[in-house]
Design a protein that fits this description.
- This protein is mostly helical.
- Helix content is 69%, strand content 2%.
- It has eight helices and two strands, in the order H-H-H-H-E-E-H-H-H-H.
- It has a two-stranded antiparallel ribbon.
- Helix 1 (2-27) runs parallel beside helix 2, helix 3 (65-91) runs antiparallel to helix 5 and helix 7 (148-176) runs antiparallel to helix 8.
- The longest helix is centred in the C-terminal third of the chain and has 29 residues, at 148-176.
- It starts with a helix and ends in a 9-residue tail after the last helix.
Amino acid sequence: MANSKSKARAQAQARARAQAKKAAVRTGPAHTPSVRATPSSGATGRVVAELDEADEYSAPPGPPLWFQVTTFVLALTGLGISIYETVVHYTGNHLAGCAKGSTVNCTAVITSPQSMVFGVIPVAILGLAFYLFAVPVMSPWGWRLRRREVGLLRLGSLIVGVGFVLYLIYAEVYQIRYICEYCTGVHVITFLLFCFTVVAAALWGLGERRTRA
């Protein structure tokens, strides 16, 4: 009888060690929780519960859901405007609803020499490429990655984006002497995403470095 109990206890401990080993492989060495199995018939169930609880508390923090959704909606809006401006650039149409006045003239802006980078690449294409990258990294799935590489790319792209926006504002105000309502919308969205990204980096960091086992 004693041998049966010892055998059952040994089997329960072996199962607990196997569960712990699987959890270590899944979460990596930085998040491997310490597991203490109890010699009872329900040891495996308690071990799994302890592992799940440890995984939950070891997950690196990140921005709240409302923050993630807000940046995602802003990025999608910027992408939509960029797509429309690109289509108008290549079709030669006029931007709908853009009033003409002493300071506003979308046609003058999108057909000016400053609308082409190095005289080759349309600014609209650069905006489209930027937001094609911004949408995934500003989505809830992008924020939940919590990879330092992703955080650095996100922050770096917004720094470059805001720098380019400042140049475009200068070109509109001092060189073209007209502003474009659609371009201004993209500028505002880019600046807001920059502010959100800086706040996220300050409050929650850029993410965790990837470690090798």
